[in-house]
Amino acid sequence: MANIRKKFKDAGLTSTQRKKYVAKIIFTYILGYKVDIGHMEAVNLISSSKYSEKQIGYLAVTLLMHENSDFLRLVVNSIRKDLEAHSEINNCLALHAIANVGGEEMAESLAPDVHRLLISPTSQSFVKKKAALTLLRLYRKHPTVIPAAEWALRIVSIMDDPDLGVAICVTSLVLALAQDHLDAYAICCQKAVDRLHRLVIDHEYPAEYLYYKVPTPWLQVKLLRLLQYYPPSEDTTVSAALQRVLQAIFQASSEPIRNVQHNNAQNAILFEAIGLAIHLDPKSPLVGSATVLLAQFILSKETNVRYLGLDTLAHLAARADSLEQIKRHQKTILLSLRDKDISVRRRALDLLYSMCDVDNAELIVGELLRYLKVADYGLREEMVLKIAISTEKFATSYKWYVDTILQLISTAGDHVGDEVWYRVIQIVTNTEDLQEYAAKVGFEHLKNPTCHESLIKIGGYILGEYGHIIANEPGYSPFEQFQLLQTKANFCSAATRALLLSTYLKWVNVFPEIKPHLVQVFERYCHVLDSELQQRACEYYAIASRPEEDELLQNICEEMPPFPARESTLLARLNKKQGDTEDKRTWVIGGKEANEDLESKKKSGKRVTTLEGLGSKTGDILSDLQGLDLSAPNGAQATGSANGETPGLASTIAPSPAIPLTTNPNIERWYERLTYTSEALLYEDVQIQIGYKSEFHGHLGRVALYFGNKLSAALESFTATIDVPEPDALSVVFAKIPPSTVTPRLQTQQVLNVECKNVFTSPPILRLSYLAGSLQTINIRLPIVITKFLEPVKLAPSEFFERWKLIGGPPREVQQVFTINLLSGVVDTERQKKVVEGSRFLLLPEVDPNQVNCVGAGVLHMSTGGKVGCLLRVEPSASAKLCRITVRSTSEVVAAEVAKLLKKPLGSDASSVPR
Predict the structure, then answer these.
(1) Residue 22, annotated ligand binder?
(2) What residues contact 315, with CB distance under 8 A and at least 6 apart?
(3) Fold that domain 667-784 belongs to in CATH
(4) Which residue, among 509, 507, 505, 485, has the nearest Cα to 496 in the 3D structure?
(5) Closest by alpha carbon to 481, among 521, 519, 520, 440?
(6) Residue 796 has pLDDT above 60, yes or no
(7) Which PANTHER family does this one have (predicted)?
(8) Are 507 and 484 in contact (CB under 8 A)?
(9) Which sequence spans correspond to the domains of the chain?
(10) What is the C-alpha separation between 589 and 361, in angstroms, rounded?
């Protein structure tokens, strides 16, 4: 090292020699020796134009420099130059360095450049893969630096990349980003389903991605997991495609093949598919058949298969309304507690905790208590927590609860946290009927030769508060209670002895016959070295020595009032985040109630048969231990729950914000024209043309959209989605998932199925995105308005006027008065009639004697809202250049909406009339 230091001072050092010496420094560092030279030489090597020198420079930087090193500021510009270079090798070296060092300052400076490499159409596939993984690394370390929501559409579009390697890496990135930005990345669901359908159903994949006859299992697993973060799609086309994929995966797994690698890959996909099927609908036939498969898996000879089988059954138990299918295999699950592998034993514990209910709680808790005596020390703390929670949650008897918890403390000893015995005290204090029994049971437990300190605390507290209730019964006299506690006190910690001193003070008030013995204890403790015990004893001695008629002692020693409902300290201790590199869980260990939010629990209205319904003094004294996620080792809770997110975060996604519409001078004119015609141009620019054609019958309709590519290059990552502002009133879905590519100079047709369920006021929005050099987005309204679902009705003049009068005036009558443009000084009657007929009213010429006026009638059809009559009268005035539209309908909302729709087309320029 001294020789190298001397060489670095040589002004004639060549770049080749510099590379050689830096390589020696790296080797010395790898051997474990401290290195304090070579940093500047490494920085200089990065700027070299030779690959071999640049490679050694980057290697030295990643090994010798940490993320907070001052030298890193010197290499940021060199790394940026390599990212901007046209050499793919330089790009990759720079990406490796960023991913390995990954400091916050470097992330802030270079993340946009990494993103540019990822989305650049000129980047090679292997560069895109490294860029995606580098962004993933930076996001996991410094999530606030990455503008994930802004980059959402552009990153998701690369999921359609024809190179499956790029798709895998980008899916990994999307999987991490979507967990924190669900709304922004919602479009990835359609991409995931489309890619799965092409892989599993259409078999579109290169031969090199077939792993032991399983097409790219890594990508399939990631896509299936990604879909579990979102609620089931309301688009029936997407849902149907996903169901076909799941059925194909289940069917492929039913074919037995002895090849181990094939089985591993297929099982990885199968378990993820089962998890997705449970997420979509726990009652589906797919889940029913999956339960049978899982029962076979937990008996498998392979440890991994048993582990995954138990974990997936726990997922089912966390979502299912009924646990009967799982309870059939209860004996096998109990046997899994004694599996040779501790990971399997842990998953068996999770499953037993999840499937525990009122019916089997005593059996499961009893078995867990028996197993607790021989369980691994690494598992005992988690078992104690789950036993305590299950006992409290599903106990129908207070006595069984107290017996079980005291037995738990006796068995587990030091593995029982203080929070558990705190909870016992709270329940006993809040339940008057339980106090006598708890005092007797606590006394009996204290008689055991070996008694854990937590039991002494419970016994001391309960006897101090309620010992007088049993003092008159044989064997429970005041002196026997005092003698029993005093024999245990000498072997306890200072904190426990302090609690016992408080018990003795309580007894001074209720047991005057043993007061001399109690005062003697206080006097003896006045001279101990522990300051807390000494002060407490002195104060208690002074209080106990006061005259008997003094009320101070009685006031101090009053019975403890009931505890108020409070947040469990156990919950606060267990709410710990998992590592930053782990995916958030989409469910928590526990039954269905543990996976529901508080609002859904309030609305469920389930009959309470547990301890929750037995308390008399507080409304919810036993809720502190419920709803905990004990899935991680040592009771660490999943990240999603720790962040305050409800499990099954998919069900709580906030509605998407208002969609900014694409602006174009002609868009409004094209839209208005299509509100009263069935086919015309919907949108056009220099890259794409969208044609529109529709037909409606009753409450149903079909719309054909024609996407024409006007460029000489294909439109890649083509994505078309429909956003319906009022999904309860209108349904608009694609008949099939749109293709991801539109070929050059050609047109592709997509059909929409439309259903009017009720009155709606906002039209659906077509959202398009595609790659044409850069990412292009188009958001336009579809001319699907309420008048499209009108059916023309023939009415005689008498019948028309009878209905007109029957409907009456406002609010079921709406009028619109507006100016009109005249052609040659006269009203364009033909155009007005065309608009009225285009709005699906039947013209009734014989009703109004004035031929300039238009009268029409129609019936609005809705699948859930029924049929609504609608009458129309248009009265233009050439002299006043005004037009009055009057609409009467049995629904005031329909009247207002129809009048509003008709006003604008009738008042438009004549030049906008289609010829």
Answers:
(1) yes
(2) 274, 275, 278, 587
(3) Immunoglobulin-like (2.60.40)
(4) 485
(5) 440
(6) yes
(7) ADAPTIN, ALPHA/GAMMA/EPSILON (PTHR22780)
(8) no
(9) 667-784, 787-912
(10) 16
pLDDT for residue 658:
59
Helix locations, 816-912, DSSP H: 829-838, 892-907
Residues near 384 by beta carbon (within 8 Å), at least 6 away in sequence: 372, 408, 412, 415, 416, 417, 420
24 is an annotated ligand-binding site residue: yes
User: Does the annotation place 7 within a ligand binding site?
Assistant: yes
Please report which confidence band the pLDDT of residue 872 belongs to, taking 50, 70 and 90 as the band edges: very high
Residues in the chain: 915
Residue 684, beta-bridge partner list = 689
462 or 825, greater pLDDT? 462
Superfamily of domain 787-912: TATA-Binding Protein (3.30.310.10)
Q: Please indicate if the annotation marks 21 as binding a ligand.
A: yes
Tokens representing 230 are 């979102």
Long-range contacts of the stretch 442-446 (C-beta < 8 A, 24+): 442/406, 443/470, 443/476, 443/481, 443/484, 445/406, 445/410, 446/484, 446/485, 446/488
Q: Under a CB-based contact definition with an 8 Å cutoff, are residues 853 and 875 in contact?
A: yes
User: Are the CB atoms for 221 and 275 separated by under 8 Å?
Assistant: no
The answer to whether 157 and 775 have CB atoms below 8 angstroms apart is: yes
Asked if pLDDT for residue 633 goes beyond 50, the answer is no
pLDDT band at residue 566 using 50, 70 and 90 as cut-offs: low
Q: Is 900 annotated as a binding residue?
A: no
pTM for the structure as a whole: 0.80
Give me the mean pLDDT over the 328-352 stretch.
Answer: 91
What is the three-state SS of 11-70?
Answer: CCCCHHHHHHHHHHHHHHHHCCCCCCCCHHHHHHHHCCCCHHHHHHHHHHHHHHCCCCCC
The residues near 716 (Cβ < 8 Å, ≥ 6 apart) are: 157, 160, 740, 741, 770, 771, 772
Once rounded to an integer, what is the mean pLDDT over residues 313-321?
Answer: 89
Category of 698 on φ-ψ map: left (φ > 0), alpha (ψ -120 to 50) or beta = left
